[in-house]
Amino acid sequence: MTRTWQISDVTEAARARIATARLAAAYGVPPVERARLTASLGAQLRSCLTKGGTWRLTLETGTASRAGARAGEEVLHAVVTPSPEAAAAGQPPWRVTVPCPEAVADVGVGAVADDSAELAQALLGADEDTTLVLERLAEQEGLVDFHREELQQTNQGVVALHAELDAAGRAQREAFAAERKARTEAENARRRLTFLADASAVLTASLDHHEIVRRLPELLVPEYAASVDVWLFDQDGDRPGPVHAAAAVVAARTGRPQYAAAHPGGLPGVDDQPPSALAPDRPLLCIPLPTRQAPLGVVTLSPPGERWDPDDAVMLVELTRRASIAIDHAQRYQHNRDIAETLQRALLTELPAPPGLTLAARYLPATHGLNIGGDWYDAFRQPDGGVIAVVGDVTGHGLRAAVMMSQLRTALRAYAVDGGSPGQLLTRLHTFLHHLQPDLFATAVIARFHPDDPTMTWAAAGHPPPVLRTPDGGVRTLDAKPGAMLGIPLRQEIADHTVPMPPGSTLALYTDGLVERRAQGIDPGIARLADALGSFGPAELDGDLEGSADGILRPMLSDSERDDDVCLLLCHLSGTD
What we know:
Helices cover 45% and strands 20% of the residues. The protein is an alpha+beta fold. The longest helix has 77 residues, at 128-204. A 5-stranded mixed beta sheet has the order 5-9-8-6-7, with helices on both faces. The protein has a 5-stranded antiparallel beta sheet with strand order 10-19-18-15-16. α1 (10-26) packs antiparallel against α2, α2 crosses α5 (128-204) and α12 (523-534) packs antiparallel against α14 (545-557).
């Protein structure tokens, strides 16, 4: 089927449009496609009339062969051919194709009435498809409104969800921030406690208060303080002079920490003071060194930055308190040590010089610890011409041990005036000590020399055995069974032992501080002493017994920190009269 219309004015254009709509409906073109066809055709015809001339509209049906339609499907082709003038101007034909799924046989189209009423009626009929499309559009608009409302509700839900997520995220961030803060505070607290423990260990490791004062600034600078000044009061109790900050004076007088700065420090347990005239631009923290009676001094610190963290200030106050305890203990220890050492050295009397017998003694106090006061030596003559040499060791240390040692020494001299062998003297000392100080014990070894007796008599009570060097250079340990320690709750009779001692012999009496080492025991030390004593020639012992004593101490003490007193008494019989 083919239809053709010549179009040169509006009426012809309208008739052609109406006829196209009716033919499209007759051939089963869907309403939407018909509406698109008539709308596109109307727009094209208006464009053609604007350009002028005569245009030709051709409608034909056929089978689909173009892209966009199924093969074998019936379609309706519409072609608008330009006038010769437009064609000459290069205007291309206008074409459109729509499917005809319900194609019918050839349909005749009557002539369209010429009068206006019939034309209007025809136009209305032609626009039935448009009405149907508008109804479809109304339905679609209702669906669009429904979906728009759902979308709005969905958007509101999404907004609410976003608000909830934002609130949850904010709460989570706040929780994370609180956790980080708590973790940071915990790490800082752990760091402060670790520092406090380590610093306390360093301060209490020394019994020299000068060393403690020297180490305190090394511990605090530069992490916790820019500078540290430790001011110890005089032993007479004099209080601060004009060279110290006013806040330090107040701290010394009140015993409370003071903070001197232009602005309050807000430090717990610390009083605020005006800036110091000595350092007006620098905050000062003045902490007293407290004791039970009165402060030992004041520690003045300046902050590493602009000011201190309150927790750091609390830690500094606690560290200063511990430093004060360490200094106080060191000062008390040094005081007691000085008294004990002075007393002990005063009691170590000058050795006698009997004919044919040379004596050399050495006493060395412990290098650290309050171990002074227990070891002693003595040598004196008896009325019958004999010479008593003794070395002893009182258990315990310090002033009490030194006093007990002096009492034993005095008692031994008193007992020896009445005569008696070394064993008898030790037995009497045992009874004396047990009744005088039941909680103190002692060890001792006594050797007795007599110019008319070629033997030496000795006795020991819980003491390391003497070491004897004979004139031929042989060395042996006098290891006969000794008695028990002096003062133990046990009755005992301490036996005497004799050994030949020709001229040129040397006897070494000593305390366990010379030979005993914690890691080795006492036997290896006694063997080393025997080796050292045997290394001297007869001439050295005859000519310089004092030098020989030093020669023994050097190798014996070279590997020791000397945490106990050391006594050595050498007794040498001259080789010639």
